[in-house]
Structure formats: C-alpha cells, structure tokens
Specification:
Elements (H helix, E strand, L loop, with lengths): L1 E7 L9 H6 L11 E4 L2 H10 L10 E7 L5 E3 L16 H13 L4 E5 L7 E5 L10 E7 L10
Parallel strand pairs: 4-5
Antiparallel strand pairs: 1-3, 2-6, 3-7, 5-6
C-alpha cells in the first residue's frame, strides 16, 4: 500500500519517527517515535495544513510516498477508539491509545480515521517494529505549498 506524508525537505527521507518523538502527536506521547502518513496526497495536505501555522511553513517542503506491506497493517474501527478521539486540544486518551499500540509492536502500521475527515484514513507507522525495514520510500517530490489554503 502507498501512503503519503508532507514535511520539511531535509527530513523527507527520515524514517526514524524522530519528529513525532520530539513533539508528540494525536496518537503518540513525546519520547515515542512514529511516522504519521495519510492514504492520499490530498489528505496528507489537509492534515499538514491543520497542524501548522502559516508563518511556520518552510520554503523547502516535500511530499514523500512510502510503501508498506498490506499484511502489516492493523485496521482499527472508529468505535474501538477512545470516545473523545477527535477532540481539540488532543486528549491524553488518544496519546495513550496510540502509544500502547506503538509499544506493543504488534503491527508495522495502524489505520486510523482522520480526525479532520473521519471518512478518510491515516496510517501510523511504527519505526520501532521489527519489520520497520519493510517501509520503503518510493518517491520524494518538492511541494510548493499554496498559502491560499490557510487563508480560507
């Protein structure tokens, strides 16, 4: 399966999950590495947009296409998620939920509904999983971010 992520070009080939480890996210506590990806380029752009301030968008931005084995994906249905999983600010319940999954290392990736558009899916990749070497970078493309998206 192909998944996508948007980030600074200098980190476009980094599969360590270091950014999420430093900053934490909806599905991980700080100090727990993971890689946030989306099922499409458009969802990846939407997720990036809601999580960055317009003044912090770098000039050197890239979209990375990754390939992960289908058999290494755990599908989590929405009704199995914490009841407040879409909440802003991000609740500890989702950080705890995702961190448990990442620490268990049961699957390389998990499919989670997007909190922005729950009919679409994000994939949280686990660089701590024994099969993390099966995450392949397929393509890295420069991305010119159109700031009009943030002006709406």
């Amino acid at each position: 399966m192909l998944v996508f992520r948007i980030g600074k070009t200098k980190h476009s080939n980094d599969l360590s999950g270091e950014g999420a480890k430093i900053n934490g996210g909806r599905w991980n506590h700080k100090s727990i590495p993971c890689i946030y990806t989306s099922e499409s380029r458009a969802l990846s752009l939407l997720e990036y947009t809601v999580n960055v301030n317009v003044d912090e968008i770098p000039r050197a931005l890239s979209i990375t296409t990754l390939e992960i084995p289908d058999e290494d994906i755990l599908v989590i249905p929405e009704d199995a998620l914490p009841g407040n999983w879409k909440q802003i600010p991000i609740p500890f319940s989702t950080k705890n939920f995702g961190t448990r999954f990442l620490n268990a290392k049961t699957k390389l990736a998990t499919r989670i509904p997007s909190s922005v558009l729950s009919q679409e899916f994000n994939y949280i990749l686990n660089p701590m999983h024994p099969n993390s070497g099966n995450i392949k970078i397929v393509e890295i493309q420069d991305l010119a971010y159109d700031v009009r998206i943030k002006m709406i």
